[in-house]
Amino acid sequence: MKRILNYPGSKWGLADLIIENMPEHKSYLEPFCGSCAVFMNKQKATLETINDLDGRLVNLFKAMRDNPEKLQYLIMHTLYSREEYMLSQEISSDSLEDARRMAVRLWFAVGGKTNANVGFRKNVSWNGPYNAYEWNDMYNRIGIAAARLKDAQIENVDAIKLIEQHNDKDTLIYCDPPYVATSLASSHYQHDFSLEQHKELLKVLKNHEGKVMLSGYESELYKQELSDWPALKTMTKVGITSEKKSDRQEIIWCNFDPPMQLNLFKEEQA
């Protein structure tokens, strides 16, 4: 399906490749769902759980699932404007209105960043990227997302504890945590991960009884801890308008032998 949100590190450009390497599973867990790019595009499993520590993001997904028509109406009447972008930084006490504001923030902010006032993403060329055009299509995308989210469990809890709760041989985990701090030029996320948290995450993933797919950039920690895990590698171009784009090697570590090796060049906007 088409992108429903802009979000740092989102996998809309890599979702199909990730899904093609997924083993069969009855239960599926995304402890760091972000924009839900992989979840939205994969086939439904019997039990599905998505989670994120960003409460405003989780509230938006719940609004898409539980009140899609009302959210569609609000989005349809929201102009693509700097004024709406500024308002989106204020948290509303009304959950549905805050869902609208969060959608605005993710679409209108440069790079979809949620951790700072990074500036309004204005359109400067008819030849794209034309954000206003995509925003006007959100009405349709919410309807599609609502159907996909219908039976999913949507959580807003600590990812590591959630992984431990789902330690089952039939549960596939696709894990896309915030990048290790040393591998990024600047912070992109509302809730970044410390090095100690990354160590704890790797510990619980290595103890998981089922299959695991873990996305990230190469770092000394991951290289050392996952030396015996097969790794799929692909080049991506990341960056946003206000920051210089750079080529990055995205790695997908697996605790099983994936069916294919990735050696492709994708251009993404983080």
Secondary structure topology:
Blueprint: H1 15-20, E1 27-30, H2 37-41, E2 47-51, H3 55-66, H4 68-76, H5 82-88, H6 95-108, H7 131-136, H8 138-149, E3 153-155, H9 159-165, E4 171-175, H10 195-206, E5 212-217, H11 220-225, E6 231-238, E7 246-254, E8 265-267
Parallel strand pairs: 1-2, 1-4, 2-3, 4-5, 6-8
Antiparallel strand pairs: 5-7, 6-7
Helix pairs in contact: 3-6, 3-8, 4-6, 4-8, 5-6, 9-10
Enumerate the strands of the largest sheet in spatial order, edge to edge or round the barrel.
3-2-1-4-5-7-6-8
User: What is the CATH fold-level name?
Assistant: Rossmann fold
| Class from helix and strand fractions | alpha/beta
Order of helices and strands, N to C? HEHEHHHHHHEHEHEHEEE
Low-confidence region ranges: 123-128, 262-270
Number of helical regions? 11
Cα(first) to Cα(last) distance is 18 Å
* CATH superfamily grouping: Vaccinia Virus protein VP39
Radius of gyration based on Cα positions = 18 Å
* β-sheet strand percentage: 15-25%
Query: What is the average of the pLDDT values?
Result: 86
Largest sheet: 8 strands, mixed
Describe this structure in words.
- This protein has one domain (15-267): 3-Layer(aba) Sandwich (Rossmann fold), CATH 3.40.50.150.
- The two termini are 18 Å apart.
- Strands 3-2-1-4-5-7-6-8 form an 8-stranded mixed beta sheet, with helices on both faces.
- The protein contains 11 helices and 8 strands.
- α4 runs antiparallel to α8 (138-149), α5 (82-88) packs across α6 (95-108) and α9 (159-165) packs parallel to α10 (195-206).
- The protein is an alpha/beta fold and 270 residues long.
- A hairpin with a 7-residue loop joins β6 and β7 (246-254).
